[in-house]
Amino acid sequence: MSVQVFYGSARQTRLDASETLPAKLDLILDRLHLRERVKDETVVIKMHTGNNLNYSTIPPVFVRKVVQAVKDGGGKPFVADVTWDVEGADLRGYSPQVIGCPVYPVAGPHDKYFYVHERPFKNIREWKVAGLIEDASLLINFTHVKGHPSCGLGGAIKNLALGCMVGETRGAMHDTCQFDRYWFGELCPDPATRARVIESCPHAALVEDKQHPGELHLHIEQCNQCGRCLRVAPPGSLRIDPVNFDAFQEACAISAGITLSTFAAGKMTHLSLATNMTPLCDCFGFTTLAILPDVGILGSDDVLALEQATLDLTAGLRLMEENLPSSLEVHDRRGHPFQQIHGPFKDPYRVIEYGEALGLGSRAYELVDVMPVESIARGPIGYVPAR
Predict the structure, then answer these.
(1) Cα separations (Å) of 167 from 63, 83, 299?
(2) Structural domain of 254
(3) How far apart are CA 260 and CA 133, in angstroms?
(4) For 54, which of 50, 87, 249, 270 could close a Cys bridge (C-beta 3.0–4.6 Å)?
């Protein structure tokens, strides 16, 4: 059974404010019946406020629209994000005076307010959900779509998976990539050969392991699976295997599922702004050029349908390679554009597949355009003589 995903295109027909994206967001909120659902609810708007010199996060005008809709419906809204990003959120326009509600750290000022959920997965036994997330009675998951070096896509699922957990759990989620062995030092005992393996990576993804001399550590974020290291490493000593890359994707699906399980049915909705899409997550603290054309804004009560629709809408777009930082490269042009940037084993659809297996929603969707762009019929062009 398909789920409705409401969509507002970044394009418009007329030069009119009623056709701009913030106006289309209002239409999406109407179709989601948000105002009718929030009366007397404590509403957490989970978003990423970015940090440092980042300027590609969700513009405050969009956040204000959502906050006002909650207030109109009689709800009590607040924006939440991780501690160190909230500390400077006002510098990027996320102040109560601008967006209309307070901005709080999800797990308190010292990242120590949380609820524990047990769910064994690789190196993780406990998942610590941020207290202000679990205390809220209704969730609005509002994300900015961009690339991500760990999983290809930084979207609605990752906004829940990482942004709603305390730092300890976020770190453990990234460490799942290290759980399955990939370096077999007994097959490469020569220090000089290990040094050549490290030097073969132009992205500094391979380094000496600090805790285990003679071992190599693979930074999954930097690795784009180019295979240069495999041409130098002795046979069998190093594996670049999907299992290490998929681990983080599955951890994100599990984490998002745990977060969503703390809300009652009908008490969750999701929004994604697919504009100014950059290669990296907003948590890096800076903004690069956009590498995909703007798509628009999407909304749905089903996080998987929303993510699937977002990826499908961006899959066929031209990757603007001329806008990539020169330190990044595209060596495999198969798959989604975000996958082309970060490597074939960082398939952004994988987390949706894991989420569907966990019963978090449906990948089948019906895209409902809230204001379709019209084709304007024009007569033949006349002749205007030059001056």
Answers:
(1) 25, 9, 28
(2) 3-176+243-369
(3) 10
(4) 50
299 near 31, Cβ under 8 Å?
yes
| CATH number where 220 lies | 3.30.70.20
Whether residue 387 lies inside any domain: the answer is no
Contact 315, 82 (CB under 8 A): no
Sequence-separated (6 or more) residues with CB below 8 Å from residue 298: 5, 6, 7, 8, 28, 271, 272, 274, 306, 309, 310, 313
**Taking the model in full, what pTM does it have?**
0.96
- Position 310 scores a pLDDT of 98
Q: In the predicted model, what is the mean pLDDT of residues 191-211?
A: 95
Look at strands 76-81 and 42-46 and give their pairing: parallel
d(CA 293, CA 322): 13
In the chain, the DSSP E strands lie at 3-9, 42-46, 76-81, 103-105, 114-121, 124-130, 138-144, 146-148, 152-154, 206-208, 216-218, 268-274, 296-300, 365-369
Checking DSSP bridges between strand 124-130 and strand 138-144, what pairing results, if any?
unpaired
pLDDT, averaged across the chain: 96
Evaluate whether 303 touches 361 at the Cβ level (below 8 Å).
Answer: yes
Of 246, 261, 380, 363, the closest CA to residue 303 belongs to: 363
| Shared domain check, 340 and 216 | no
Question: 203-231: per-residue pLDDT in tens?
Answer: 999 999 988 888 999 999 999 999 999 99
Please say whether the dihedral angle defined by the alpha carbons of residues 305, 306, 307 and 312, taken in this order, is positive or negative.
positive
